Each structure stands twice: as C-alpha cells, then as structure tokens.
Amino acid sequence: MRRVSGMLVAVGLAAGLAAGCGAPSRDAMNAKLQTQQEKLSASNYQSTAKMTVQMENGSQTYYIETDYDSPEVYKIALGDANKNINQIIVRNGSGMFVVSPTLQKVFRFNGNWAQNQGHIYLYDQILHQLSTSPDVKVSKKGDVYTFTMPITPENDIVAKQQVDLSVNTLEPKKVVLYDKENKAVVTIEFTSFQTGVKYQQADFDPQKLASSGAVKTTTVQDSQFTFVEPQEILGDKQDLSDQLSATDWLLRYTGPYDFTLEEWRPDPGVAGVPGGKLVDLFGVPAVLAGSGNAQRLMWIHNGVQFSLTSDKLSLDQMKEVAISTFGQVGK
C-alpha cells in the first residue's frame, strides 16, 4: 500500500538530475532520496503550510493541513489565513471526495488526482516528481537543497516549479510555481512536518468530515443573494444576468469564447459527478465534468457554488476565469 519503487528514483535521477554548485553528486543525491522514500513508505505524515496565490487583483492566503496515511488514504484541508477550514480533499478506499464542512456538502468523483495535480500538497508526490522528471536541476545553499524543473504538461498559468528541501532531513520547506515571466504565482511555505501520526478510520470519512464544521447560517443580509462577476472574461462581453431564484443567478458571456456562469447557494448532501475529475485552483478544489467539447467546471467559494460551462474554453482558460472570481464582492 505504501511501496515506493527505489528503481524509479535511480532511473529518474540518473537520467535527468543535474547537480549545481555545492550539491552532492548524482549518486549521493540518488541515495538520499531513495532512503527518504523508503522511510516514507513505512510511515505516514502530517504537514501544515501557508499558501499565497498571486492574482491580478492582489493575493489570497490559504492554510493547508495534509494528513497522509498511504497513497490510497489521505486528506488535504484547505482554509483561510485564520485557519478556518473551508474545504477538504479526501481520498479513501471508496474514492475521491471534496467536502465542505460549513455547508455539509460532499462531492464524489473518480480519478487519481494525487498523481495528476496533487504534487504541490503531498510530500510523497513531491519526492516522486523529483525522482522522475527528466529535467531536474539541483543546487545547495546553506541548509537547503533547491530543485527546479519545468511544469509538465505545459499550461498557460504556470511554467516552472521550484522545490526546497532540508539538507539534513529532506523534509519539505517550500514549493513555488512560476509563470512564463518567472514571476511567482503560487508559494507554499511548510510550517510543520511530522511522521508516525496515529489516525483513525473516521479521520478520512467524508460524511463525518462534512458534519464536523460549524454550519453557516443564512442571515437577512446573506439572503439578499447577489452574483460575482469574473475579472477575466477573455475578451467576451456579458449579455445576460438572470436571477433564476432568490439564491440563483445565471450569467452569460458571448464573444470569441462563449460561456455561462451559474452561481447559487448549495443545499447540504452528497452529489456524485460521474466522470468528473478534480482540478486544483490553487487553494480551491474544483471538479471538471462533461463530454466532447462541452465541459463544466464546478467549485465552491465563500459559501457559493459556481458552475462554469463552455464548449470553446480550454481547461486552462476555464481555470483563469474561475480564479478571477476569488476576492470579488457580489453585486
């Protein structure tokens, strides 16, 4: 359940690890990472971190708490700067889930998100990337090893990744994602890391996690539900803002890229998303579903559920539109 192939480490590093000034030799680094993965395969861990996401209209700060029991059992709690948990990504024997404790909402979907996008939160995936990327470069400064590598596959949001590990323990210290102009888009600073944590099965139960938070009550002011406009509309123009109900708005944008954005107050319960896969909006998990060219991206932010639908937008473009709604105030 927790086996990690040492052969992958050897092959990946021998093929692509370039040592910088002050860094150990290729064989020495190979041995260090191989030993660390062997230790991790026989243990579990908990980490906490602060994540800062840079946007055109400022920045957002998130709290991240990761509980990892095995590659098949883990959870990633995402909260605000005050450590109020808003959503939890859960993997267990029954599948993948996104849980919103304050809304008592659970999304269930398929897919192995950790191998595809979860590497910036999960230490085992950080080690896996360092061992298998064909273009890793490493340098040493003081008590930190710094690894850099291009993002694969390429996308329009981030182009390069930097990982800092402790020289003495190889524990994670920092992960930074850069755009094509070499500007930091996402910075994760680890604040704690410990192994040998005692977990219970209930710790990874999405239903129990959904009922663990304080349920948000709707006030008179909250009931006057208004919509949030995305800042990034890719040259389109809004030609419709229709209030479908007291807590549901539909926005339509037309132009080079046609898309609709629906926003509403979600009801408690479990929602299955057949064929859906988890997409990371850097601090806010989203679920992508659809068939053919028509795709739908769904996420929850500040107690509002969003659904972005288009048959022209690429996934990267959908992510740009979605992220541009963060920090916006409803109209």
Oligomer: single chain
CATH topology of the largest domain: outer membrane lipoprotein receptor (LolB), chain A
N-to-C order of helices and strands: HEHEEEEEEHHEEEEEHHEEEEEEEEH
Task: Identify the overall geometry.
Answer: globular
Biggest β-sheet: count, sense, barrel? Answer: 13 strands, mixed
Number of domains: 2
Percent helix, as a range, is 10-25%
Indicate the low-confidence ranges by residue numbers: 1-17, 217-222
- State the separation between the terminal residues, measured CA to CA: 49 Å
Organism: Alicyclobacillus macrosporangiidus
Keywords: Lipoprotein, Signal
InterPro entries: LolA/LolB/LppX, Sporulation_related
Protein name: Outer membrane lipoprotein-sorting protein
Features:
LolA/LolB/LppX, 20 strands, globular, lipoprotein, outer membrane lipoprotein receptor (LolB), chain A, Outer membrane lipoprotein-sorting protein, 7-stranded antiparallel beta sheet, 18% helix, 13-stranded mixed beta sheet, 331 residues, alpha+beta, Sporulation_related, signal
